[in-house]
């Protein structure tokens, strides 16, 4: 069993994990800008298109955070051994 260094467990949130906050800010922050009826975007009202776009971007951001987490975990394992 691997012993966890106290400083490693108390280091806190890595900076790249703050990327997970961007989709929430994008969805909520853009509502006043996209809240109109015309013109339609891909057959959808602008607000719906804005939300759908951010839902898709959320997947991309979460995939990026996941990949960065895996890389950081691999680097920690290599340093520990």
How much of the sequence lies in strands comes to under 5%
Structural class: mainly alpha
Q: Return the string of H and E elements.
A: HHHH
Radius of gyration: 19 Å
Tell me the helix content. 55-70%
How would a textbook summarize the main sheet?
A: none
How far the N terminus sits from the C terminus, by CA atoms, comes to 12 Å
Number of strands: 0
Q: Give the averaged pLDDT, no decimals.
A: 83
Write the layout of secondary structure elements.
Layout: H1 6-9, H2 22-29, H3 31-34, H4 46-80
Helix pairs in contact: 2-4
Describe this protein's structure:
By secondary structure, this protein is mostly helical. The chain has one domain (20-80). Helices cover 63% and strands 0% of the residues. It contains 4 helices and no strands. The chain has helices at 6-9, 22-29, 31-34, 46-80. The radius of gyration is 19 Å and the shape is elongated. The two termini are 12 Å apart. The model has no long low-confidence stretch (mean pLDDT 83).
Keywords:
mainly alpha; 4 helices; elongated; 63% helix
Summarize the structure.
This protein is an all-alpha fold and about 80 residues long. Helices cover about 65% and strands about 0% of the residues. The chain has helices at about 5-10, 20-30, 30-35, 45-80.
